[in-house]
Amino acid sequence: MKIKQEHFNKIRSAMFAMIENGRFKKEVIKCNPLIEETVASYQKTYTRPGCNPVKVLIWDLFRAAQIEGDSMIWVSDNLYYYMNDDHLETALKKIFIEMYPPAKDLLN
After folding, report:
1. Which residue segment(s) compose the domain that 83 sits in?
2. Distance between CA 70 and CA 108 in Å, rounded?
3. Looking at the domain assignment, is residue 108 inside a domain?
């Protein structure tokens, strides 16, 4: 991964804190079965060819984490000078697989 460890840790901490506090949209994701339900819901909703619903979910989780108030502004200020969205997505996948190991088979 191209992301600096300090930035990876900040994203990981924010995403885990958000989930532990139940701040992700309407769902309260506190354990794997609820993550599984959310994954299933995204798979039903995002059916467009070429769209990976689990990738949509990990980006939604990242944006909802509100790193320093706004995750996307934080990315612009801290990450985009040395990496791009592909690198960020690799980090998000790693974090999500840690949260929900079955996602490894869903993220290609």
Report:
1. 5-101
2. 27
3. no
